[in-house]
Amino acid sequence: MPTSTFALHPIAYVHSTLKHPALAPKQGREAAPNARLAVAQDFVDGLQGLQAGQEVILITWLHQARRDLLKVHPRDNPKAPLAGVFTTRSADRPNPLGLHRVKILRITGRELEVGPLEALDGTPVVDIKPVLAPPADC
Length: 138
Description:
- 0% of the residues lie in helices and 32% in strands.
- It is an all-beta fold.
- The strands form two sheets. It has a six-stranded antiparallel beta barrel with strand order 1-2-7-6-3-8. Strands 4-5 form a two-stranded antiparallel ribbon.
């Protein structure tokens, strides 16, 4: 299979009280704090239409993750058997993209306060997508 290279450009950075991976919850719903996203000036127009109270999916680049692992102990539990990274939510993976469902708490200029968010301080945000309602027949 041919190998391609892709370039991602951060649209924002996370500002959080979470400074070290060992102190971060595994998922936002596990007591993660609120955080602030500082959106780059070039992307501010893309915020038009977002509202406080709305849920969005943040796609982040987990910049402190290891990219050379294909097997991990789920939830960093050494007693759990090794599993392929594609069966886990581990940050350590070949392309360490994070998916975070958060609520927008406040929008001030080019800053969004969101929460709860388990991403570390300084984490690059590569996209923001709205959470869509499920189809009526689900």
